[in-house]
Design a protein that fits this description.
There is one protein chain. By secondary structure, the chain is of the alpha+beta class. Helices cover 40% and strands 20% of the residues. It has 15 helices and eleven strands. A hairpin with a 2-residue loop joins strand 10 and strand 11. The protein is globular, with a radius of gyration of 21 Å.
């Protein structure tokens, strides 16, 4: 049911506009591409945006079989990261508390009786982030300056009403700041914990576009795969519309070969964090690099495959097969 809800909630008008553009550019029949889209939804379990993002219109049958669609993701994650154990990861204040060894930052969760704690938090932080308890893609995440709060009581009450909490601002390492300073550019790194033997499946850097305050792929950001051995980016970077960037559009820094600081420490940290649960076996960790080293922003129980497959320019069924082979043993 979740797959069909995903399909029916799609933006059909936007999809049709983009498909017509592709048909024109590739001298293809719009009608035939439309029919192929719905065939692909049924046959491969992908969504409308997947058809465009993965360039299914130009993929062979063999190539298409290697793509992980949303339908397969739902089945896969229910097996390796069951929803019965999701609260620890999806409720952000809970995650910050239970993974405090790795998150390494202050936060405040309001209730009806802790206004004094709220004031103490403000006194310690001139700038902080306001976030929803849960949510995806950086939605409703706002940077707030304490000096701009004119009515603290009203601000506090709004937090309670809208189920928002406050989080210490993460200061980004100067090297990543040079790449893009309008957002914290986070590493998405997937781990698999099999019988307390964690391994890294994939890693990529999400990069802000220099305009929006977040780096999310679904909010105008771009991404590039990371070489797991060297910690260097494999360029060019791509955004969700498949625009390619050999250099960052604002800083002009070259993407290919850009080296992530503290990458060995990142790998060590996420492997250790992966051991914290023997029920959630696959996690997509979002990691920030600060001047003193890496810290975890959040852990995603169901990390998507869109960023992974777009930056790889191929389907990543190999990841699914590898995990399931070990789980089924």
């Amino acid at each position: 049911m979740a797959f069909y809800s995903y399909i029916f909630s799609a933006n059909y008008k936007r999809f049709a506009h983009n498909l017509k553009k592709i048909a024109k550019e590739n001298h293809r029949s719009y009608l035939m591409l439309t029919l192929d889209t719905y065939y692909s939804i049924i046959k491969y379990g992908i969504g409308l945006s997947d058809y465009l993002n993965y360039q299914f219109y130009s993929r062979s049958k063999k190539e298409r079989k290697e793509y992980v669609g949303i339908k397969l993701q739902n089945t896969f994650y229910e097996k390796v990261s069951p929803s019965a154990y999701k609260k620890r990861y999806t409720i952000k204040p809970t995650f910050l508390k239970e993974f405090k060894e790795y998150t390494k930052r202050d936060f405040f969760v309001p209730n009806e009786n802790n206004f004094a704690e709220f004031q103490a938090f403000l006194s310690k932080h001139a700038t902080f982030m306001r976030k929803p308890y849960d949510g995806l893609g950086g939605a409703d995440v706002t940077k707030v300056h304490t000096k701009d709060i004119t009515d603290k009581q009203a601000f506090y009450e709004e937090l309670i009403k809208k189920h928002l909490f406050l989080e210490e601002l993460v200061i980004q390492h100067e090297i990543l700041n040079k790449l893009c300073d309008t957002s914290v550019n986070t590493i998405r790194i997937m781990t698999f914990n099999h019988h307390q033997k964690p391994e890294i499946l994939w890693a990529g850097l999400r990069i802000g576009n220099g305009v929006n305050p977040v780096d999310n792929f679904h909010a105008g950001g771009m991404g590039a795969e990371i070489n797991l051995e060297t910690g260097e980016l494999i360029g060019p970077a791509l955004d969700k519309d498949l625009n390619q960037f050999a250099n960052h559009p604002k800083s002009n820094i070259k993407i290919d070969g850009f080296k992530i600081p503290y990458f060995d420490e990142v790998k060590e940290m996420v492997k250790k964090a992966a051991l914290e649960s023997d029920k959630i076996l696959v996690v997509g960790w979002d990691v920030a690099i600060t001047p003193s080293g890496p810290l975890i922003i959040e852990g995603n129980r169901r990390p998507g495959f869109d960023l992974v497959q777009v930056t790889s320019n191929r389907g990543r069924m190999d990841i699914i097969r590898k995990v399931l082979k070990n789980v089924e043993k």
